[in-house]
Design a protein that fits this description.
With 86 residues, this protein is low in regular secondary structure. Helices cover 0% and strands 5% of the residues. It has no helices and 2 strands. The chain has a two-stranded antiparallel sheet with strand order 1-2. A hairpin with a 2-residue loop joins strand 1 and strand 2. The chain is rod-shaped, with a radius of gyration of 52 Å.
């Protein structure tokens, strides 16, 4: 009797390969398992800290101005003949 031939056992063996990310999806080969890493993202955004209220109010102040005023004198002669008692 002859001995049976030796056949190595066939079993699935995982093979890992890196694939580039295309958009939001991974390129599919046989089975793609995404490797996730944490990435620190620092952003500045405006946040209301306090509120300033601005109002108008009327303030009256007295100021003294020294200016030359024009002065006119008028002499009026009444030629109508009427008296001033009217």
């Amino acid at each position: 009797m002859s001995e049976p031939p030796e056949v190595p056992p066939a079993r699935p063996s995982p093979v890992s390969e890196s694939a580039r990310v295309v958009g939001e999806r991974f390129e599919e080969v046989d089975m793609a398992v995404p490797v996730i890493e944490e990435e620190l993202v620092v952003k500045k955004r405006p946040v209301i800290r306090e509120e300033l209220r601005i109002r108008r109010r009327v303030v009256e102040e007295e100021e003294v101005f020294e200016v030359d005023l024009r002065k006119e004198e008028v002499d009026v002669e009444d030629t109508s003949g009427r008296s001033r008692e009217d």
